[in-house]
Amino acid sequence: MASRRLTTLAAILGLLASLLVVATTQPALASSSAESDLVSRINAERAKRGLGGLSVSGDLVSVARDNSAKMARNGQLSHTSNLGGRVGGWTKVAENVGYGASAKAVHSAFMSSGSHSGNILDPAFSQVGVGVVVDGDGTLWVTQVFRQPKGASSAPASEPEPEPAPAPKSKASTGGSSSGGSSSGSSSGGSSASTPPPSPAPEPEPEPEPLEPSFDRITVTLARIEATDEGSGAKVDAILVPEG
After folding, report:
1. How far apart are CA 73 and CA 28, in angstroms?
2. pTM above 0.90?
């Protein structure tokens, strides 16, 4: 009788243990609403600066979701392995990754970092794929993949405004006397136009000021840049595969 009770108790404990394992290994889920939110925020930032919006590309979304799922499983930031090989048909491709409590928090962290906002605001890019996966703790793991399609050119620089045409010169009137007398205020020879003063010598151009050091986004490919938004605790990382 006692052994039967022990067997039953062991079975109950085993069932409880299996339920606990299921509860603690709850799979991470993709969040399409957070993905749409981040795409809207990206295009709003570009619109503020007169840049065209990015269209969502399904193959980029697939790559982004795969990487976000990997980060959620491992609990740490990482980039898509061989990004240039996973993404096809590109002239230039880049990736931002991050995690945080909300889409807004992660976006703010991206925009607070020069390398990440540089990818978001790059005029060469015209396509994006955003993947968001939420883990069991409610943390959002975010991947953004940007692409300039092969054969697409960067946005052309605005042409400078044409210089105004010079005003036509008026002909000088001459005195009517054959004796060579001139009109009042004119030089000898009969011309009523005063002699223009000599043009001042051009001032030497000032020497260019030294440029402030800044992150080169190509360097980001070799030394990944990480940034943390202190207000929200969101953490981000970026890479860019240059043209070539």
Report:
1. 8
2. no
